[in-house]
Amino acid sequence: MKAQATLLYRFRREFDDRAILEVIVWQVPKPVEEGCSHPYKYRLFYGFPGQRIIGYDNERPKGDHRHTIDGEERYMFAGPEKLIDDFLSDIAKERSKL
Asked: Which domain holds residue 38?
């Protein structure tokens, strides 16, 4: 029998200003090929329809990385809780500019 992925977190919030926050984290049977050594697959998004302000994901072949308005950079993954904390911290900083 093939091992299945397990959904760990799924959350979506829409703000009054139409901004969207979405978190999806899966635990997978084996690390994502090319670029990751941990058993998680994730996609975190904050922005507006058609405009990403902050994003974290581990799409192959890039591995763990983070998107901001200024560009893209590697992200040092240290577990799903830390990932979500870092993401929410980035959003709080961004929203404080409003």
From this structure: 6-96
Is 65 a domain residue?
yes
pTM: 0.90
Q: How far apart are CA 57 and CA 2, in angstroms?
A: 25
Residue 1 lies in a domain: no
Q: How many domains does the chain have?
A: 1
pLDDT in tens, 22-77: 999 999 998 887 778 899 999 999 999 999 999 999 987 889 999 998 899 999 99
The answer as to whether 50 is a domain residue is yes
**N- to C-terminal Cα separation, the chain:** 51
Cβ(38)–Cβ(31) below 8 Å:
yes
